[in-house]
Amino acid sequence: MTEVVFYCFAAVAVLSALLCITQRNPVWSAIWLVQTMLALAALYVLLGAQFIGAIQVLVYAGAVMVLFLFVIMLLNLGHATSDLRAWPVWVITLGFIAVLAVELLPLMNYSSERMAYEMTRDPKLSDPAVVFQAAHAAQQAAVAQGAAGSIAGPLFGTYLAPFEITSVLLLAALVGAVVLAKRRV
Amino acid sequence: MLIGPALALSAILFSLGVAGVLLRRNAIVLFMCIELMLNAVNLTFVALSQQHGLSGQVIVFFVMTVAAAEAAVGLAIILAIFRHSRSVDLQNINLLKG
């Protein structure tokens, strides 16, 4: 059952991503990108990351995409224009995509047994349940503290310094955006 | 677990994002394609966090923050460029070209 739902949302994500990069009107591009992000939020929930799924809907599909639509409307770009590049770029792009596909699509065959063997290099020790103890601990934390609480542990513990630096980054982005968007630069 | 299919899906989404960045000339659509690539990478992190612990989900949190900051600054730059040349077509932005 989970697999059927997963493949449905995966198909939605790929189709709306395709429509996003092929629509000539930027407004439609943005709407299809929102659709992709909502499908990805559903996939996060299916993969056991409920909190990240909620944040995806709130921050990405909500805040960031509203910012995009706001700029499109502000600059009055909401009409279809032909903005595709000339054919030499298409050849380069197809080559690039082919290389990426050859490199990345074999990841489809990922299996936890193989990964455990690659990490230990010993057939006797490579039991996934033993090698990936972090997964078991994460499941226990999710049961004990809930989806948000189990992320809050590492976020305010191990990753406290990056978290604080992120706030400085956001402040810098805020100041930079205001200065850049001011009338006289 | 569904890790393999999720990794394949994120590879497809990343490739679509790269295709969009290379093929479109509209600066805003280009930015959206960059967001698409960031989302594909986030999917990889979430899929593998099932097996390697919750650090992956924390990293997704940071990626989202950086993406939001990048979108804000990038869109402000696009706004400034539009005010300067009345267009967001990257073909017209060749001020630094010799």
Task: Please describe what this structure looks like.
The complex is a heterodimer of chains A (185) and B (98). By secondary structure, chain A is an all-alpha fold. In chain A, 77% of the residues lie in helices and 0% in strands. Chain A is built from eight helices and no strands. In chain A, helix 1 runs antiparallel to helix 2. The longest helix of chain A has 25 residues, at 50-74. The model of chain A has no long low-confidence stretch (mean pLDDT 87). Chain B is mainly alpha-helical and 98 residues long. Chain B is 80% helix and 0% strand. Chain B contains three helices and no strands. Chain B has helices at 3-23, 27-52, 55-85. In chain B, helix 1 packs antiparallel against helix 2. The termini of chain B are far apart. The mean pLDDT of chain B is 89. Chains A and B meet through helix 1, helix 2, helix 3, helix 4 and helix 7 of A and helix 1, helix 2 and helix 3 of B.
